[in-house]
Design a protein that fits this description.
The complex is a heterodimer. Chain A has 14 helices and no strands. The radius of gyration of chain A is 20 Å and the shape is globular. By secondary structure, chain A is mostly helical. Chain A has one domain. Chain B folds into three domains: 189 residues, Rossmann fold (3-Layer(aba) Sandwich); 125 residues, abc- transporter (atp binding component) like domain (Coagulation Factor XIII, Chain A, domain 1, Distorted Sandwich), CATH 2.70.50.60; 140 residues, Galactose-binding domain-like (Jelly Rolls), CATH 2.60.120. Chain B has ten helices and 27 strands. In chain B, strand 24 and strand 25 form a beta hairpin. In chain B, helix 3 packs across helix 5. The termini of chain B are far apart. In chain B, 35% of the residues are buried. Classes of the chains: A mainly alpha, B alpha+beta. At the A-B interface, helix 2 and helix 6 of A face helix 1 and helix 3 of B.
Chain lengths: 285, 561
């Protein structure tokens, strides 16, 4: 039902994505580039400054020799940070998706989840642009790009599914309880530091003793892990891994499986939550 | 569902849950079912309604009666709490101005956005685009962002999209009241055609005249229920009695009138009040109304009550149009009618017959009672804006303006007097110069498309619009030089092309590549003699911030060489 409705309004969906890119920066001088500058600044802070402060010492992996790559830490951070930035920005926007379009919802009849979906898509497009920049920078700094990078679109779909599920829940919940917005911004911060993005997963234990256990139920861990395999492990250990279209890490496909499961569960639950409450949604905003 | 019906509503009710605090809702969710922490506001109750295909239904009611809620449920943006709503066909609603529009988008982009929101496919939109654009008549504004549009322009755009998506059912909510008379007439014509083609119309308005004009049946909503469902005439009568009976609602009605007609505040009494004007009413076709149809006779009834014993009063009125010009003004003494002297408590009713010649528009009535010929020496009561009413056209407009009087037209082919175009121009623009330097004063030979001169540095210059026309007299000139400058924005999509056409022929094109002051020369093919009607086409215009003018180039001097 919902999917068919969304499909019927697909050109509206695309319109909204295009509008999003154009309108967010309409009237500003360099326009769409803010879209990229914003995350670039974040990357700079984490990947360059943090990497210098902490130093580029990488803990050796079992079975691999120590590596002498001055960019390794930066690449590692970027691999996990980019999807995270996209996820957190999209979820922050999603939580306001219905409220900020109340004018539209009250006066025009159309499938409301489109409002969440277009933000998810627009976030993924930004992510794609940033990944393209990252790849160019990696090539310039003398790295080889493994063929398994072709799995990237699959990761986008999985991330989109997961984001949409959480997003539609947040959008609906915020329409009923404005407090959700505050909650989201705090929750996102905690979630970020609970996930090995700017540190290695071996260090999780240092944060709390049950950290490693917590990781197993943290969907974001699997998401960042999948990106780290493609962008970091396969690149930094390029010479030590057989480079084929399928990543050689045995954990890659189980990770994708868990992500797919999370995505399906989240979007089903999110949609059910929305459908349950949609009847009075226009009355509340 | 009956096959003649396009809308069937059965037992519809809409409840809004009102929570005093957000916490109350949380409590309600978390506590066992049955506990309630809200109070219910029933916007609609027990609504049963059938609308036949091709009919047109007016929905009348005071603010808060539930009209908008009903419309939103019909449009599918709100869902009913109880009951069923069945709709056959595509429904398009013009619920409120600018819904589904984005201010930063151009008119054209908004057409797409809006049409997609109404569920049209891209191929459909492409097909309709031309007629939407034509109907909206936005001209150059179509490709400018919506935020610089006037309210009327945004309305035109919204209406043309809704009108051109070929809806089976069209819902119009007050929106028509915003456009200018020309566009209103165009919309009325469209709505008539729409109905003639079998479309169903639902029309919500506070304006009884429009409801009478457009609808063949009407329902009256009051406190969420349908209290009358009949012909527009009968329902409007019911509405008026309801208003009189129910004081609380009467207040809201007055409030509505106030919002509608910003300038008509409450009646302003002044005077010594030995007598007071009790009531003024307008009667046409046998019933009291606030809307007249042009060409129909009407009577203005003024009721006066004496509070003291008074000598024979003179009762007068004056009719003003929306700009405050007095259209008609007279009184009983000027009309040579005598009135009796009144004792305290006695009343008098004077009926003035108004000529059926008022043009369409809004009028206010000022009424006065005073002894003697006029109110200057002594005045019992002088009341401004005692009544506001509207004159509507029954038919498509045959005229515009203050007076609606019969005008005939006769058309013949003119005989030529042998003068050629240059001679005619010569007599119309006697004294045309061979060069024009822009000065502080407006120049009458810059005929069209020049904005008033502005001081630029030490000298003066005029902005043109996209198309400017001026007249010069040539004595064997070989070309024309324009000293001009423009704005850097004009070059965003490449060089700017200027096209000069002289006396309707021989186009000369020039491109400029920089916004700085420069002299652009347009050579003529041959020497020109006599009057030159020069038309300058600028390849693009821009709209500066804080300005709604579309500007072309800035001209300081035009000279023949």
């Amino acid at each position: 039902m919902l999917i068919r409705d969304i499909w019927r309004f697909r050109s509206l969906l695309w319109d909204l994505v295009v509008q999003d890119f154009r309108a967010r920066y309409a009237g500003s001088v360099i326009g769409v580039f803010w879209n990229i500058l914003q995350p670039l600044a974040q990357i700079f802070i984490y990947a360059v400054i943090l990497a210098r402060v902490v130093g580029s010492r990488i803990p050796g992996r079992v079975g691999f020799p120590d590596i002498e790559d001055p960019y390794a830490l930066s690449i590692y951070i970027c691999a996990g940070l980019l999807p995270w930035l996209t996820l957190s920005e999209t979820l922050t926007r999603n939580s306001l998706a219905f409220l900020s379009h109340s004018n539209l919802i009250k006066k025009v009849s159309f499938p409301h989840p489109i409002l969440v979906l277009y933000q998810v898509i627009s976030g993924l497009i930004t992510l794609f642009i940033m990944h393209a920049i990252l790849l160019v920078v990696m090539i310039i700094t003398g790295h080889r790009i493994p063929p398994s990078i072709v799995w990237l679109p699959v990761l986008y779909v999985l991330q989109g599914l997961m984001t949409y599920g959480l997003g539609i829940f947040l959008a609906t919940a915020t329409a009923y309880f404005r407090d959700m917005m505050q909650f989201v911004s705090i929750a996102l911060q905690v979630w970020f530091w609970m996930t090995p993005i700017v540190y290695f997963r071996e260090l999780t234990e240092r944060i709390v003793s049950f950290g490693p256990l917590l990781l197993l139920v943290n969907p974001l861990y699997y998401l960042s892990r999948a990106f780290q395999i493609l962008f970091y492990e396969n690149v930094v250990y390029y010479d030590f891994l057989p480079q084929k279209l399928l990543p050689s890490q045995s954990s890659f496909f189980p990770t994708l499986g868990i992500l797919l499961l999370c995505g399906l569960v989240f979007s089903t639950l999110g949609n059910l939550f929305y459908l349950k409450l949609k009847k009075e949604l226009p009355d509340q905003i | 569902m009956n096959k003649d019906n396009v809308i069937e509503i059965k037992g519809l009710a809409k409840r809004f849950r009102v929570y005093d605090r957000p916490l109350d809702r949380l409590k309600e969710w978390l506590t066992p079912s049955g506990m309630s922490f809200h109070w219910a506001y029933w916007a609609l109750r027990e609504i049963d309604l059938e609308v036949k295909k091709g009919s047109s239904l007016g929905i009348i009611g005071v603010n808060g009666a539930g009209k908008s809620t009903l419309l939103k449920i019909l449009c599918g943006t709100l869902s009913p709490t109880f009951g069923s709503v069945e709709i056959k066909g595509r429904i398009a609603g013009l619920l409120e101005l600018g819904s589904g529009f984005h201010p930063e988008f151009t008119g054209r982009q908004n057409i797409y956005l809006n049409a997609r929101l109404l569920g049209l496919s891209d191929a459909d939109i492409e097909k309709k685009l031309q007629s939407i654009v034509e109907f909206a008549e936005l001209g150059d504004f179509l490709d400018h962002p919506l935020r610089i549009y006037s309210t009327g322009m945004a309305l035109r755009l919204g209406f043309s999209v809704a009108a051109n998506v070929d809806p089976d059912i069209l819902i119009i909510d007050e929106a028509l009241a915003v456009g200018d008379a020309y566009f209103q007439q165009k919309c009325l014509k469209y709505l008539k055609d729409f109905r003639a083609k079998g479309g169903t119309l639902i029309f919500v308005s506070h304006d009884p005249g429009a409801v009478k004009l457009l609808c063949d049946s009407a329902v009256l909503l009051h406190k969420g229920r349908i209290v009358a469902n009949d012909t527009p005439e009968n329902v409007l009568n019911y509405y008026n009695t309801l208003l009189v009976r129910d004081d609380a609602d009467k207040e809201s009605f007055i409030l509505e009138r106030k919002q509608q007609e910003a300038k008509s505040s409450l009646p302003q009494h002044s005077g010594s009040f030995e007598a007071i004007i009790e009531k003024v009413s307008l009667v046409s076709d046998g019933c009291e109304t606030r809307t007249l149809f042009a060409g129909h006779k009407a009577e203005l009834k003024v009721a006066v009550k004496a509070l003291n014993d008074i000598e024979p009063p003179t009762i007068g009125f004056s009719l003003r149009d929306r700009l405050g010009y007095e259209v008609i003004g007279t009184n009983t003494m000027l009309l040579k009618k005598t009135t009796p002297a009144l004792k305290a408590g006695e009343g008098l009713e004077v009926s003035f017959e108004l000529p059926p010649m008022l043009g369409p528009g809004e009028y206010t009535v000022t009424v006065a009672a005073h002894p003697g010929r006029d109110h200057i020496e002594h005045c019992y009561d002088w009341t401004d804006r005692m009544l506001a009413f509207k004159v509507a056209l029954e038919d498509e407009s045959s005229c515009v303006g203050l007076l609606n009087v019969p005008v005939t037209a006769r058309i013949e082919k003119a005989e030529t007097d042998g003068r050629n175009a240059k001679e005619i121009l010569e007599s119309a623009f006697a004294g045309a110069p061979s060069e024009i330097t822009i000065s502080e004063e407006a120049n009458r030979f810059l005929t069209t498309g020049f904005y008033p001169p502005e001081k630029i540095g030490e000298s003066y210059a005029c902005w043109t619009s996209g198309h400017a026309v001026f007249v010069l007299k040539s004595e064997g000139a070989k070309g024309l030089i324009i000293r001009c400058a423009t704005d850097a924005r004009q070059f965003e999509s490449g060089p700017l092309e200027l096209t000069l056409t002289v006396n309707g022929k021989k186009e000369v094109k020039k491109t400029i590549t920089s916004p700085d002051w420069q002299e652009v020369e347009f050579p003529f093919e041959s020497e020109e003699q006599g009057m030159l009607r020069c038309s300058l086409q600028v390849g693009g215009t821009f709209i500066p911030e804080n300005d709604k003018r579309a500007l072309g180039i800035l001209i300081s001097k035009i000279a023949l060489t």
